[in-house]
TrEMBL record:
Transmembrane segments: none annotated. Pathway: Amino-acid degradation; 4-aminobutanoate degradation. This is (S)-3-amino-2-methylpropionate transaminase. It catalyses: (S)-3-amino-2-methylpropanoate + 2-oxoglutarate = 2-methyl-3-oxopropanoate + L-glutamate; 4-aminobutanoate + 2-oxoglutarate = succinate semialdehyde + L-glutamate. Its EC number is 2.6.1.19, 2.6.1.22. The gene is gabT. It comes from Neobacillus pocheonensis. It comes from the Bacteria. Belongs to the class-III pyridoxal-phosphate-dependent aminotransferase family.
Length: 447
């Protein structure tokens, strides 16, 4: 166990007395639909630490579902927001324009993959970015069909939900869904029956060619949208061979490739964008979450000729690219570039692997330990032979960790994956303290 001064301070049960009072108010005025991972309420966040209403201090390994790569309340963002609030709040870009919108578009055009000419516009959420990327792709190609992948997650609005591949809780009884959306299989090497990643990749790529014969001809497909690493799907990491194979199929048939970087972008995987690991350049890219340290803004960036396909007024939104979101995002990019946070993400991943890589031999309930940069996951199973997903154990471990001051979440089609989205600004001491709590929770719950 770590011997340094502890950051975690748990003074009450979770939820504490003040949190219980707020929970009663919440039950009366908020519908049950929005989920909550930990049953308490934040009053302060700083870096990788969160203090709740009862004075308990937690280490945050959830990062607002990947929205806080630069941590809670990064100083540069806070200062920029104060300056912007003192100037103006929201003239609406469609009414009177403002420079931060232009500056952020120029910045994203610079840092996203590819040396070609690009253009960017802004929205409010990841789902809106996905919706608009699909609109742009359809407008540019004149085609209607869109391909996504099994276990993929792209949002809760109707097109995004149609592209998402998990029934409960995202799609159950919400149909009918958007037409002309189809799913391709995505490699899951831990659960593959093939002897090598290459064999599985080849089999899947061949199935896509067959798909063109049996389901939809490629001439009718506008775009393929892919998370370079699946987020909600369980932090499933494909091979470069597979991703490049999909991109080659798209190029062969004039299909646009959309990289959904909503969860993987802005340094999470040790690259500014996860797609950079796979040596491809997407035609369009969707971004949100960590783009602005928790402020609601999203972006679509793509090749200039594609982005210019919609006519004036056909894309946009009243609050899209708010001045507050734009200035926050500019400071986030600066923090990542000047703070060496890409290297920090790689270091966090290495520490995680060193701590947990041997746990598969210790606990038969741990089926797989995987990571790419600071996107880290532990998959829980009933036993190593059947690999039956163990959602119940994952929930027990998460609850035990939460009660002991560590905020973590689950993921995966079956909810059996513990995912870590640690702020990249976390200190070494905080990182190891949090991993100590997680390790203890695993030990207790796996006995």
């Amino acid at each position: 166990m770590s011997k340094t001064k502890r950051s975690i301070q748990i003074r009450t049960e979770i939820p504490g007395p003040k949190a219980k009072n707020l929970l009663e108010r919440k039950y009366k005025c908020i519908p049950k639909g929005p989920f909550n991972t930990i049953q308490t309420f934040a009053v302060k966040g700083e870096g990788a630490l969160v203090t709740d209403i009862d004075g308990n201090i937690f280490i945050d390994f959830a990062g607002a579902i990947g929205s806080l790569n630069v941590g809670h309340r990064p100083p540069g963002v806070v200062e920029a927001l104060h300056r912007q609030i003192d100037a103006y709040l929201h003239p609406c870009f469609h009414v009177m324009m403002y420079e931060p919108y232009i500056e952020l578009a120029e910045t994203l055009n610079r840092i996203t993959p590819g040396s070609h000419d690009k253009k960017t516009f802004f929205l409010n959420s990841g789902a809106e970015a996905v919706e608009n990327a699909v609109k742009i792709a359809r407008k540019y190609t004149g085609r209607k069909a869109v391909i996504s992948f099994e276990r993929g997650f792209h949002g809760r609005t109707y097109m995004a939900m149609s592209l998402t591949s998990k029934v409960k809780p995202y799609k159950y009884e919400f149909g009918p869904f958007a037409p002309e959306t189809y799913k391709w299989p995505y490699p899951y090497y831990y659960r593959s029956e093939f002897n090598s990643t290459e064999q599985l990749d080849d089999a899947l790529l061949q199935r896509f060619e067959t798909f063109f014969q049996g389901e939809v001809p490629p001439e009718e497909i506008a775009a393929v949208i892919m998370e370079p690493v699946q987020g909600e799907g369980g932090f499933v990491i494909p091979s470069q061979r597979f991703v490049k194979g999909v991109k080659s199929l798209c190029e062969k048939h004039g299909i646009l490739f959309i990289a959904d970087e909503v969860q993987t972008g802005f340094g999470r995987t040790g690259k500014m964008f996860a797609v950079e690991h796979f040596d491809i350049v997407p035609d369009l890219m969707t971004m949100s979450k960590s783009i602005a340290a928790g402020l609601p803004i999203s972006a679509v960036t793509g090749r200039s000729e594609i982005m210019d396909a919609p006519n004036i007024g056909e894309i946009g939104g009243t609050y899209g690219g708010s001045p507050l979101g734009c200035v926050a995002a500019l400071e986030v990019v600066k923090a990542i570039e000047e703070g060496n946070l890409l290297e920090r993400a790689l270091t966090i991943g290495k520490v995680f692997q060193e701590r947990f890589k041997n746990h598969k031999t210790i606990y038969p309930q741990i089926g797989d330990v995987r990571q790419i940069g600071a996107m880290c996951a532990i998959e829980l199973v009933k036993d190593v032979d059947s690999k039956t997903p163990n959602k119940e154990l994952a929930l027990k471990i998460i609850q035990a960790a939460n009660q002991n001051g560590l905020m973590i979440m689950s993921a995966g089609l079956y909810g059996n994956v513990i995912r870590l989205l640690t702020p990249l600004v976390i200190t070494d001491e905080q990182l190891n303290e949090g991993l100590d709590v997680l390790e203890k929770a695993i030990t207790v719950c796996c006995q």
